[in-house]
Amino acid sequence: MVFASREEEIDYLRDELEKAGYDETSKKQWDEATLGRVRKLRQLEEEAPRRRRADVYDESGSDEEESDEEAEEVDEQGICWSGARGPDMEEEEAEAPARRRCAHVKEDGRQCPNFVLGSNEKCDFDPTRFCGPACAAAAAARAEALAAKMEAEALERKRARSESDVGARKPATRRAAPGLSDMMAACARAPEPEPEPEAPPSPVARKKKKKKKPKKAKEAVPDEIMTIVVRDRRKDSSEEDTTVKLRTSTKLARVFGAYADGLGASVDTLRFLYKGGDVYGDETAGAIGLAEGACLECVDGDPPAKQKKRVTGTVVRWDGSRGGIEPAEQGSGGRIAVRVSGVRRGTSLRVGDKVEYAIGRKGDARFAVDVMVYAPAAEADEDSKDGAVVTLANLNYDTKRYDLKEHIGSIVGKSFGRVELTAKGRAAVGFRTLAQAEAAAAALDGTELAGRSLSARVRKESQGRRRAPSLDVAEAAAPASPRASPR
């Protein structure tokens, strides 16, 4: 498109940008055509010399009448520059390059239409860029505002970068106050459903868990300082007393070592007693009850090995080389194994003996050591130390072991041992003593199981049998599982 003057082209570009809604402060991404108009407008505003108005050359011949009277010039673009060329025009053309448009841009984006003065006597503004002091002041204010805006944007970018480095969230953008459209949208929105009322509590009240009371911390025993006496009772000694100061929490091994060094002897050759009993080095003064003025005695001899805790129990199984012991005290663990190597020399075990033993460990295994008998088995069991067996006959061929054990338990209680189905229609029940076996046989003989009348008799278990049912107290005490019974 061809324009008659630079001012007309500038006006056209401004109108086009206004139609497109261009705004310098907006961060919107504009198309290339709009950006091209912006660049062209800025270029024209910077270089806007005064030009003569020009008329587009009309080939229709409307100006033919004046063509003879006025001199016409037609340039390469077809623009006809008309008008009388007198001496005034030549002077005006000579002054045109020196006169420029005012550089001030108004708030609406239009450039000031006035021309620069070129000179200023007061020197209160730049006459080569502005038409007056008002435009110069407005341009200065706009430049300051633009600089402040750019500085604020730089600070905002720097703060956002620092927050993103430390992982902080960016501050939420402040929303404008809701307008009429937002209010109408809120009114048109469906109301939120009211919360449903809570269901009534169930009639079956759950058991409330009892709050565990915090355990009271054990009061710390005061670590007091005491003075005790160590008396030398060795052979050929003067029985001299030595006072020793120590705390309640002091290990006695330190006292023994210091006392032996004072005597010039080895602590491994001394033995210390308190009230006639051995005292061990890994014990503390408070643990054995030492008080102010207590007396320890030092004698010759090797320090005694600390004895293991001893437990009592009953021998429930013994075949001459190995067996089992049922502990009598609670908290001593379950049944424990015993071998002949763990029995004290000169002691023989029998089923039913009351024994005392210590617990040895090897890895996760537990076994009885230093087993000694403190109460032999009853004399009634003397003739039946190998156990007795009751043979049941006339059983149904598909009788299950579980059903047979339930039947026996309902008649004789829990005093029987292992139950085995030896053949079709036969079973063997082990008992600890012969007396128990005879009583059970008398009670079981003639009883009915699954429509059959059972026959029971006692046979003494001999050494020559291939396998003898052994007594299993744990199995007799607990109901057998039907899954474990053989078919």
From TrEMBL:
Stretch list, region Disordered: 38-101, 157-222, 453-487
This protein's UniProt keywords: RNA-binding
Basic residues composition-biased segments: 205-216
Protein name as catalogued: RRM domain-containing protein
Listed transmembrane segments: none
Ranges of biased composition (kind: Basic and acidic residues): 157-168
InterPro entries in the record: NA-bd_OB-fold, Nucleotide-bd_a/b_plait_sf, RBD_domain_sf, RRM_dom, Ubiquitin-like_domsf
Residue ranges of every copy of the RRM domain listed in the record: 388-461
Compositionally biased tracts (Low complexity): 470-487
Molecular functions (GO terms): RNA binding
Pfam families: RRM_1
Annotated Gene3D superfamilies: 3.30.70.330, Nucleic acid-binding proteins, Phosphatidylinositol 3-kinase Catalytic Subunit, Chain A, domain 1
Source species of the chain: Pelagomonas calceolata
Domain of life: Eukaryota
Comp. bias (Acidic residues): 57-76
